[in-house]
Amino acid sequence: MMSVGMAYIAGAFEHPTRKATDISVGRLHAECAAGALADAGLSRDDVDGFFCGGDAPGGLLAMVDYLGLKPRHIDSSDIGGSSYISLVGHAAQAIAAGKCNVALITLAGRPRTEAISGFGGPPSHPTRPWEPPVNARLVDLYALCARRHMHEFGTTSEQLAWIKVAASHHAQHNPHAMLQKVVTVEDVLQSPLISDPLHRLDCCVVSDGGGALIVTRPEIAMNLGRPLVKVRGAGEALKGQDGGAVDLTYSGAAFSGPAAFADAGVTPADIQYASIYDSFTITVLMQLEDLGFCEKGQGGRFVADGQLISGIGRLPVNTDGGGLCNNHPANRGGMTKVIEAVRQLRGEAHPAVQVKDCKLALAHGTGGWLGSRHGSATVILERE
Amino acid sequence: MQVDQALQQNHPEAMAFSAAAAEGRFMVPTCGDCGKAHWYPRAFCPFCFSFDVTWEAASGRGEIYSYCNGEPAPGTNVIAYVKLAEGPTVLTHILDADPAALRIGLPVKVVLQAAKDGQYFPAFTPS
Ligand SMILES: [Zn+2]
After folding, report:
1. Which helix (H) or strand (E) holds A111?
2. Which of A158, A324, B77, B119 has its CA 20 to 30 A from that of B22?
């Protein structure tokens, strides 16, 4: 595919706020854009490609005008929280095709301040007569996957809890993390059941905030003096209920993962660091299997006993503390997944969690509802 | 109960389900070309894209494919996927379930429920 090696992530910025009572969502987007541009050493007027998701207030029409951009290439393909990972791929492809030179991707939102919940679809949404009456909450659509996984493969709540334990071990080193306290498997199991079998500590945080990325062409990236982080491969997929042929044992990562690995010409065994979307612990476990880090059904064993903790386990995952402990801005975790992968590849992660000589990293996201309809996006990034 | 007007206007194809359900009949959309039933309902077949789809009376029997217990207390808010005897799997609610007896594979039968907006949907209870 065209994206291979033709674009670099030159700027990355995670907004430090976790509660933005006095900052509008639009301004958060602007602050994130400014942060990523400063990180790259570029200015707003260098931007000629703009990419955003469904969180951008007023969409492209409002945001481009509000931010004062003059893009010649635009894209607001929205697949929920995984959008920003797929948009890295889209930006790389647009750059390779000569459609833009400097792509800006922004995300921001205030779910903590605004307490958003409920059926978000339009009245014409095709599921409107059938699913809203059931009143399934977001967490229920992950709990259904967890229960089925336990039934099919013998996965346990203890194994799921290890994913949260690993996140907390990382978050203790992140001064911006919402939850910085190290927790144990017992802490997770003793937290209240939110949707049996998922406990409160199996769930991510709700946070305000945002982030932004700059993707650019090789000639520009090489003159910026920043460490070179190449977009080596990208894949995306959608998974739904398949007309009623529901199978909750796998996610769209089973398609986006192999596509990204084929694009990059590497295998899961080559990956030194992985950012894995962690809306809930079960999300991580299923994605790790589907991406090929272990066999289907072996995810529980793969994550247990600290195996995701940097410096201890076999695969360091979400060394910023992830959505489970650090940040889940706009209820969309894809952006922070890419940002921490960039930190790792640049050697700019916290020293306590930095992967030694990290050359190849993966960022993967699931957007929407794991148990009904979701988007999946995978990118593979390489330090040059 | 009348179905909410906005819902009727947005989803005219769904109204036949409610009309039958109001008379106690559980109908599932079924394809005249490939023969498969599907869920959630559409006016075409999601498997073969035929538009020869009709509402056919279903047995109302199925089994739990997966379930979860929500708040406020175990058993009071059980969300599930139920696999119908006719084939498709339905995102639904389990009513009047003893939480200790819930399990994957548990046989259930349909209980047609009217939502707040008057539209019927299939819930299930242990059979
Ligand atoms: Zn058909």
Report:
1. helix A111-114
2. B77
Contacts B92 to A, Cβ<8 Å: 134
Note whether B75 and B69 are within 8 A (CB): yes
Q: Residue A33 — left, alpha, or beta (φ > 0 → left; ψ -120 to 50 → alpha)?
A: alpha
Beta bridge partners of A236: A377
Cβ–Cβ of A144/B67 closer than 8 Å? yes
- Bond from prior residue into B40 cis (ω within 30 degrees of 0): yes
Residues 17-76, chain B, touching A (beta carbon < 8 A):
17, 36-42, 45-47, 65-71, 74
ipTM over 0.90: yes
Instruction: Tell whether A4 is within 8 A of chain B (Cβ).
Output: no
Q: What is the identity of the amino acid at A145?
A: C
Q: Are A177 and A326 in contact (CB under 8 A)?
A: yes
Residue A246: closest C-alpha in chain B: B89
User: Token pair of A300, please?
Assistant: 């529980």
Measured between CA atoms, the residue of chain B closest to residue A196 is: B69
Backbone angles phi, psi at B108, to 5 degrees: -135, 160
d(CA A349, CA A368): 28
Across the A/B interface, how many CB contacts are shorter than 8 Å? 119
Rounded to a whole number of angstroms, the distance between the first and last alpha carbons of chain B is: 27
pLDDT by residue for chain B (127 residues), tens digit each? 688 999 999 999 999 999 999 999 999 999 999 999 999 999 999 999 999 999 999 999 999 999 998 765 555 689 999 999 999 999 999 998 888 889 999 999 999 999 888 999 999 999 9
